Amino acid sequence: MLSWVAALLTGILTAHLAQRWCFPYFWKDALFLMRVIRYGARLEIYKRRSQIMTVVDRFVQQAQRIPEKAFLIYEGVTYTYGELEERSNRVAHVFQDAVKKGDTVALLMSNEPDFISVWFGFCKLGCAVAFLNTNIKSRSLLHCFNCCGAKVLVVGADLLDTLEDIIPSLQEDRIAVWCMTREGSRPGVHSLLDKIENASPEPIPAERRSVRCLKTPTLYIFTSGTTGLPKAAVITHLQSLKAAGGFWAYCATGNDVIYTPLPLYHSAASLVGIGGTIELGATCVLKKKFSASQFWHDCRKHDVTIFQYIGEVCRYLCNQPMAGNEKDHRVRMGVGNGLRQDVWREFLRRFGEIRMCEIYGSTEGNLCFMNHIGKIGAVGRSNFFYKVIFKYDLVKYDLVRDEPVRDHNGFCQHVQKGETGLLLSKISSQSPFFGYAGSKQLTEKKILRDVFVKGDTYFNTGDLMAEDEDNFICFKDRVGDTFRWKGENVATTEVTEILGLVDFIEEANVYGVQVPGNEGRAGMAAVIVRPECTFDGKKLFNHVLRELPSYARPLFIRLQESMEMTSTFKQQKFALVESGFNPSSISDPLYFLDYTEKSYIPLTCSVYDSIVNGQQKV
Questions:
Q1: pLDDT, tens digit, for every residue of 161-213?
Q2: 494-234-42 Cα angle (round to 5)
Q3: Quick one: 377 exposed, middle or buried, by C-beta within 10 A (0-12, 13-18, 19+)?
Q4: Are strands 176-179 and 152-155 parallel, antiparallel or unpaired?
Q5: How confident is the model over 347-373, as a mean pLDDT?
């Protein structure tokens, strides 16, 4: 008997040691996957029920369950679940006769509690809401309305002046403009705050917001792409619910306090941040705009336990002067994306052992990775079971030809473990791709067909990734006509078109270059000056300042006599990207965007050194 027990214990110990040696992440993978499957099962039940539960339904449910609990803390003021529920009801009552179920409305607001009140108010009327990026200019704004077909615009009081040039065009298109003020400040612009304050706080009947299918669009979130102008990514109720489970998957609870300094018009703050807060029944500290100097003070003041980030946020925090109380906080977790390895390590050294949870997934994409292990430098973690549920592949990509490599049969080729490849995600009923509003052509451009067999379809993420021997997935770069800077996607075609409006520019080729110490790529443009003209740095500075948001303005200009083209007559970017912006290795004249001089100034070796050394801010 004793020998049998001893043999059993020896076997268990041997199996345990073998598991730890051969499969060190087995239990962490299993527990995480169980949570993902459990949440997915809930969504499947929703789909099969006649009464479908959406994010707004979940908010109403939480407001009934915990009406007195703090939902939002904004600029020192606390708003409970019950108060935001009543506020959104008031918004719904104001517009219940002006819009009908299925309409689309546009929202142009900075981070503030009424962003959520207006968002949820229209959702309670069965409307889809288009979130407009507060940085985009007049031409792009008009394009956004054409994409989503919105006939109502609600604008924040602080952003009304940005619409000055296009209000006549909006009125011509019969788009009703409402501003978050108590009285009208411009002809044709309706005040909204006074109407909200006089409206009923009683709920709108639930039938008005009910949906029969989780694949019904609920939001349009605009993302830059290769077309040059913003694209309206279709966000369905299903996608919203999936995003709302992000914090929960990382074991957050209703006792957590979540700090959100990211803009609500992006999916990270709205879908993951606000949606995730609601799912947990937690509290969100909403910041109007990220401030590195106030970040830790805010965290200590409000007992923050989780914060949302993009890579730039963590870098800015690491660049702050060191303080004696840097580890004096309750923050235990950060959830976000784009965190560089060097910044990650420095962040942990400076501010303590905070669990950094990377999430990978584009707004419109049908695939998500989550680094639940916390390995530095990885955007996600995969395993056998994950690959069964989520069909994705890494394929060989030709950077020079800017397209996937195909074999003699016309099919894509898998990369080896550790090799960089283009990330593709299979489109299926379980992982649908809903595309972009207003353009089948844009949607089609993101789809690759006949990838491995005839008839299959994959979503092209546009991202180059590598998967190592331990199944950790690392982001390498972006391909095509889009690069990322300051946490925003920059469409090179849009910037090229804007530069083309300058009278002395004959042709422009826009691309991104790496700047040491910075995430993403900074904008650079190779420019041909018209023969009869000369380069005018002040005129170009004024033009980009007026026409482009700060993150999209080219920091560097390279004057060329001719443009190198591909065999298919596309502008060649690969060699330009590789050559960077070092004046000692580039014979062409180079210029730098200098806000102090209010001009593009010659990029000398001393200016270059100051940029590389971090003395000159970019």
A1: 988 888 999 989 999 999 999 987 788 899 999 999 999 999 999 999 999 88
A2: 145
A3: middle
A4: parallel
A5: 92
Question: Are 451 and 527 members of one domain?
Answer: no
Give the C-alpha separation, 611 to 32, whole Å. 43
Q: Give the C-alpha separation, 434 to 128, whole Å.
A: 15
pLDDT of residue 224 exceeding 80: no
Number of neighbouring beta carbons within 10 Å of residue 460: 20
What's the domain range around 178? 55-64+82-235
Q: What CATH code is carried by the domain that includes residue 474?
A: 2.30.38.10
Number of domains in the chain: 3
DSSP H helical segments within 175-302, as ranges?
193-198, 237-244, 246-249, 267, 275-280, 295-301
Instruction: Report pLDDT digits (tens) over 380-435.
Output: 988 777 787 788 999 999 877 778 999 999 999 999 999 999 999 999 988 899 98
Burial class for 287, CB neighbours closer than 10 Å (0-12, 13-18, 19+): buried
Asked if the structure places residue 10 within a domain, the reply is no
Model pLDDT for residues 4-59, shown as the tens digit of each residue: 655 555 555 555 444 454 556 877 888 888 888 888 777 777 666 656 889 999 99
Average pLDDT, the chain: 89
Quote the percentage of the chain above a pLDDT of 90.
64
Cα atoms in the Cβ-side hemisphere of radius 13 Å centred on 603: 26
Q: How far is CA 335 from the centre of its chain?
A: 13
Q: How far is 95 from 152, CA to CA, in rounded Å?
A: 10
Rounded to whole angstroms, how far apart are CA atoms 159 and 153? 12
Cβ-contact 558, 588 below 8 angstroms: yes
The whole-angstrom separation of Cα 578 and Cα 419 is 20
List of residues 6+ apart from 14 with CB closer than 8 A: none
Choose the final residue of a domain: 436, 461, 478: 478
